[in-house]
Design goal:
The chain is α/β, with parallel strands linked by helices. It is built from four helices and 15 strands. Cell division inhibitor that blocks the formation of polar Z ring septums. Rapidly oscillates between the poles of the cell to destabilize FtsZ filaments that have formed before they mature into polar Z rings. Prevents FtsZ polymerization.
Length: 223
């Protein structure tokens, strides 16, 4: 069963089976068409599917109605419901997590600068100061305090600084501390989690495109 009709279309993709729902007809008419096709096009064996309502907004009641209808008339199981529609709350959350929050100041000892999204600090982060961000951290100055990028668990985030000499760098749950002995800092470096070693490593900023080629693509960051 590859295609039902103009209003309900089932297609196989790299991510599994997706059922596309027409977004122009009424919801009641869509339910009747979907029920008719489920009854007359039975599948064998349990199969997970994703429903895509395209540009149609589905309320929670409508979502539950679709899930119940499919479960009642088939062995298909709805694992996800997607659309091109964003609620105001979802749009605001996306904005919060994908924009760069800029501050022009020195983060002094005892101060903690926290943002959702990427943090851009135009100034120094002194020893005892800290920057926390759900996204990446960029310091146009000396990073000598603490930087914690990806605080919500994103291991693809980075910490970059004009001059890197931190007390501590954290990315998601990984931690890299400064050595007990005194070392010189380094100009124009960034910290990242190497997936091969699962440890935080440093490299020169000119290599950032090779190591994180999709750094600026927010959709590749799981948002």
């Amino acid at each position: 069963m590859s295609e039902w009709n103009h209003y309900v279309t089932m297609k196989g993709t790299n991510n599994g089976i997706v059922v596309y729902l027409d977004d122009q007809c009424s919801f009641d008419f869509l339910l009747k068409e979907l029920e008719n096709k489920l009854v007359n096009n039975q599948t064998s064996g349990a199969t997970d599917i994703t429903i895509h309502s395209q540009h149609r907004y589905l309320s929670e009641d409508q979502r539950q109605t679709l899930i119940q209808l499919i479960g009642q008339h088939s062995e298909l199981t709805v694992k996800n419901i997607e659309s091109y529609v964003l609620t105001r709350e979802s749009a605001y959350e996306l904005y919060e997590h994908t924009t760069v929050k800029t501050v022009m100041k020195t983060i002094r000892s005892g101060q903690v600068h926290e943002v959702k999204g990427d943090a851009l600090v135009i100034g120094d982060v002194n020893p005892g100061g800290a920057v926390h961000a759900s996204g990446n951290i960029f310091v146009l100055g000396k990073l000598r305090g603490i930087a914690h990028a990806g605080v919500e668990g994103d291991e693809n985030c980075i910490v970059a600084a004009s001059y890197m000499h931190p007390n501590q760098i954290r990315i998601a749950s990984k931690i890299s501390r400064a050595p007990d002995y005194d070392v010189q800092g380094s100009p124009r470096e960034f910290a990242f989690i190497n997936p091969s070693t699962e440890q935080i490593e440093l490299d020169q900023l000119q290599h950032i495109q090779k190591i994180r080629p999709k750094l600026l693509d927010v959709f590749e960051r799981g948002l």
